[in-house]
Amino acid sequence: MSYKAPRILIIPGLHDSGPTHWQTWLQGQYRDARRVTQRDPSRPELERWAERIQRTLEIAATPHEQGEWLAVAHSFGCLALARHLADRPDSPIREALLVAPAEPDKFGIAEALPHQRLSRRSRLIASSTDPWMSAASAARWAHRWGASYSNLGNVGHINAEAGFGPLPLAKSWIEAARARAAAQQRPRHAEFSEWAFAV
Question: Which of 42, 150, 176, 192 is most buried, taking the most CB atoms under 10 A from its CB?
Fold first, then answer.
């Protein structure tokens, strides 16, 4: 069977990501990208949002469209993704990019989130001036989830209002994650020393 690159799953935060948001730009870069659309993106309900991620994946998994996903989440969407991965150990999501997570304590849901390493490779991107989560809190959650951590500095909430239309960093992460997936799919060739030769 031929190799199929993981598809892209966009998981917006509260109020969705508008036409000038970097998530919308990123979705436009990949023809096979899918977006998780909440029924009411203004109501932050963790369990319902996490279940919507699962439902989106199920709908996309037609017989001719199976395979893995790379999830790119923003703000409250990061919390929903973490909850989804904790609830669904069989999730087809291969890797996760968590950009500018919202502070769980603002919603009283810290205890409803996983407090251990996530079941998938992940990276958390934060800033020093994000009104939705302090850099110290972002570093703590990254450590709990076993995520690699980057702080972009004085860039606010890393959204359209903070000047992020395109976010090349997210596209670079996708390309690197797809390269990792492709490398794992290559057939393993035996080393020279493993071959048995007739004497």
Answer: 150
